[in-house]
UniProtKB/TrEMBL annotation:
Lineage start: Eukaryota, Fungi, Dikarya, Basidiomycota, Agaricomycotina
Alphabetical UniProt keywords: Nucleus, tRNA processing
Biological process terms in GO annotation: tRNA 5'-leader removal
GO cellular component terms listed in the entry, alphabetical order: nucleolar ribonuclease P complex; ribonuclease MRP complex
InterPro entries tied to this protein: Alba-like_dom_sf, Pop7/Rpp20
SUPFAM superfamilies, alphabetized: AlbA-like
Major subcellular site: nucleus
Keyword Nucleus: yes
The name this protein goes by in its record: Uncharacterized protein
One Gene Ontology MF term: nucleic acid binding
Length: 193
C-alpha cells in the first residue's frame, strides 16, 4: 500500500448534504493508483585505499612471506578490536615498522579511532614517542540499481561516505625530557603532532 497513491473518490450525494450513506460508502472506496516500483539498490564494494597485495609481492604465496604493505590496515567493523590490537602490536614489535597506516570508512570510523587511542597503551614504547596524525575526508562510492520490472533499465548511482586515515609513528627520543627537576609523570596527548 505504501507504493501506491491513494485517491478518494467523492460521491455527488456527499457534496449535496455533507453526509454519506452506507451505499455511497461502498461505492466510494479509495482508488489505488500503482506507482512505479523502486529499484533495488546493491551496494558495490568501494575501492580500497591500499592494495590488498603490493605489486612487488607474490599474490599467490603465503601472507606470512610478505613484508611490504603489512603496515597498512583497512579497519572494518567485522573484525574485533582485540584482533586489530594484536596485529598492530605485531607490526611494530615483531616486524620492526616505525609507521602504521589505518584507514576506515563510514560506520568503521569509531572502530578505527578506538583502535588508535587504545594502541599506545599496549606498545612497549614511551607514550611520548608515539605520534598520531588524523586526516578526515570523504569518498565517492557506487551503487548498482537493479530494476524490479524487466521493462526498466538498471543503472548506477554515486553517494559519498565519510573516511578517515590515521598514521601512527614511533619517533624514538622525541618528546623525552632529560631535565631531572621535572616530574617523572607528565600529561601527554597521543593525538598531537
Amino acid at each position: 500500500m505504501s507504493d501506491a497513491l491513494i485517491k478518494p473518490a467523492l460521491d455527488d450525494s456527499l457534496k449535496k448534504n455533507g453526509k454519506q450513506s452506507n451505499r455511497a460508502k461502498k461505492r466510494n472506496r479509495p482508488i489505488v493508483i500503482p506507482l512505479k516500483p523502486k529499484p533495488k539498490i546493491v551496494k558495490l564494494a568501494p575501492k580500497r585505499p591500499y592494495p590488498t597485495v603490493p605489486t612487488s609481492s607474490n599474490a599467490t604465496g603465503p601472507r606470512s612471506k610478505r613484508k611490504e604493505g603489512n603496515n597498512k590496515i583497512c579497519v572494518t567493523r567485522r573484525t574485533d578490536l582485540g584482533a586489530y590490537l594484536k596485529r598492530c602490536k605485531h607490526v611494530f614489535v615483531k616486524e620492526g615498522f616505525k609507521e602504521l597506516y589505518l584507514a576506515a570508512m563510514g560506520a568503521a570510523i569509531p572502530h578505527a579511532v578506538m583502535l588508535a587511542t587504545s594502541l599506545p597503551s599496549t606498545l612497549p614504547y614511551d607514550p611520548r614517542e608515539i605520534k598520531t596524525s588524523v586526516t578526515t575526508g570523504s569518498v565517492s562510492v557506487m551503487d548498482e540499481l537493479v530494476p524490479v520490472d524487466e521493462d526498466d533499465e538498471g543503472g548506477t548511482q554515486t553517494r559519498t561516505k565519510a573516511s578517515i586515515e590515521i598514521i601512527i609513528r614511533i619517533v624514538p627520543g622525541e618528546g623525552m625530557d632529560i631535565d631531572a627537576s621535572k616530574s617523572a609523570v607528565q600529561e601527554y596527548d597521543s593525538f598531537s603532532d
